[in-house]
Design a protein that fits this description.
There is one protein chain. The protein contains 16 helices and 16 strands. Helix 6 packs across helix 7 and helix 7 packs parallel to helix 8. It binds 3-methyl-2-oxobutanoic acid and zinc ion. The site of zinc ion has 6 residues, from loops.
Length: 497
Amino acid sequence: MNERVYIFDTTLRDGEQVPGCQLNTVEKIQVAKALELLGVDIIEAGFPISSPGDFNSVVEISKAVTWPTVCALSRAVEKDIDLAAEALKYAKRGRIHTGIGTSDEHIRYKFNSTREEVLERAVRAVKYAKKYVEDVEFYAEDAGRTDNEYLARVVEAVIKAGATVVNIPDTTGYCLPDEFGAKIKYLMEHVDGIHKAVISTHCHNDLGMATANTMAGLLNGARQCEVTINGIGERAGNTALEEIAMILKAHKGIPLETNINTKRIFPTSRLVSSLMNMPVQPNKAIVGKNAFAHSSGIHQDGVLKNAQTYEIIDPNDVGIDTNSIVLTARSGRAALKYRLDVHGVKLDEKKLDEVYEQFLRLADSKKEIHDDDILMLAGADRASERRIKVDWLQATSGIGMKPVASIGLDIAGEKFEAAATGNGPVDASINALRQIIRRHVTINEFTIQGVSKGSDDLCKVHMQVENEGRIYYGFGASTDIVTASIEAYVDCINKIV
Ligand code: KIV
Ligand code: ZN
């Protein structure tokens, strides 16, 4: 019989730490419910001491989900643990995740401390958290670079103090798979009482090895892995949930299994991507647009003869609905609601009406509306709160002419107009806009991506700008590429002002 691996999802904590990906509480609840449907065992809902918003999200997610354990992060500090416990008061199953850095780099430079002192603080934190909840997880931050002998002493001590789960994070994404696997094996063999706790992996992807390291950890005795949807997370991200779930499903010879309902993988991936305005790279394993697209003639021929020639996973197994209905201008509210339901998006009547209005407008300019389009509409509701709004925009460009644009802005109710030229229609529009707002920000990143297909496609623009040393993120979506770009730019400016 297969042994169970617990899936600990940290999309709403480590994933949400990504600049520009912040969600409001309502959106976090939506993601948490989708994670529950997906079958994750533990949802890390936030870091309550970090902000009132995070505190509130842990409270609301605790109320909203039924069976997964809800976890709150804290440092090995009493006031952090107090707040984590308070935020979890409505959780049916609550877990406090507390910990401290154990590598010499952390001990010396972060805490100006010693190994002995850090070990004592670790034990004190676990005992303190145990006053509130039975289920206490300890993390040895930067365990990837921590000396194995010392790490084993810490793990043994926190298990004695009552830790039910011990997390071994490769915080910097430094380890090689062999090295990380050997670390887990070392702990399994050298820690007295190791079987009284579950050992967890938490791997970052700085060197592109998060999934390989997680697998090495599981193959050597870890029985929980900490993951995020689409692998989002700090810097290069965390281990992707969908990759671990599908590796364990595809490799029948590995005697491990998860509770993941793999058919919910694709809808959950799209929900997180659209709510967080975080595009999924087309070649991303399992959930990228091209993950199952065979373009070479030899592959297409093979797949048509028998999908098993080149496909190790059936796209239906991850919830890719190859027969998904395409909506058009004639589709009613019920069809729209049904498609949103399939993706785990539940809207109240008022929001559904708003999205339906936008859907009809989009259907006027685009023949077929795909699931990605409607997810985009359901996620993009921030425009109404903006101080600066674009009333109208006209941009002209072409071969043998100088691109020119004119724009009308509404700034807190006052109307402004300007015109300018540029080296393209987007540049001309931004130059016109700058004449009104008189602010020059640097655009560091500007990504344009089609949502589904066709020349009438909806396009998404992600922009990162810098103003006085601070970074801001903006997002825009439209069937008009210039409009989407200006919307993204104005989104950034609104965040600055
Ligand atoms: O990467 C890390 O070490 C973490 C811990 C806080 C668990 O995210
Ligand atoms: Zn992390």
